[in-house]
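Quick illustration, no need to memorize.
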Amino acid sequence: MPTTEPALAISGLNAYYGAAHILQNVEFRLDSGAVAVVGRNGMGKSTMCNAIMGLLPRVSGSIRFFGEEIIGKPPHRIARAGIGYVPQGRRLFPSLNTEEHIRMIRADGGRWTLDEIYNLFPQLGQRRRLSAAQLSGGEKQMLAIGRALVSNPRLLIMDEPSEGLAPAIVQTLVETLRTLADDGMHLLVVEQNLGVATALAERQLIMLRGRIALETDAGVLASDVEIQQRYLGVARSDS
């Protein structure tokens, strides 16, 4: 039955590492499509992703996924509820080959089968017997995305997906993620690369010192140098 609940609704979210108060009353919602979260290093973006996935020992507030509260649930329950996670750095297993990474996820009979992952990323099919350590940076990112998709999530969270990739590979990645969004996948993308963030999502959330400091749109963020300098530390280029 269709639901009118937002895919993700976060309110009053606080998170801590020891005594350090990292996330401070984070609030936003993702109703449909894609949302990008941008900000400098150390602003709490990855901590937010880990909080959503149940990977932090101390959080408070509310994280609702299609109306269901998920704070306090273990990571495997959150993943099985329909949230796929592509963490920063990919976190692949060097001892496993490409196909073993995909088969290790228990599929639920949805669209994303092993064959569909290979249709989306033909290069992975050609390298199915290679270990993750033998893949290029772009292929590792494809594998990390494929591993997340095979659980057939309704929401895909990606933390710095373009990190360390060549420009041509980044463009391919952007096109792939746009295709997923057009097919109905909800996307929450954390990015430092403004070009990638604004290409993937119209809604842009700027994180500063553990808070959502500003919500804007892709066009404004891409063109407003003052916002870039104030919140993102982008240096002015004077001619």
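The mean pLDDT is 91.
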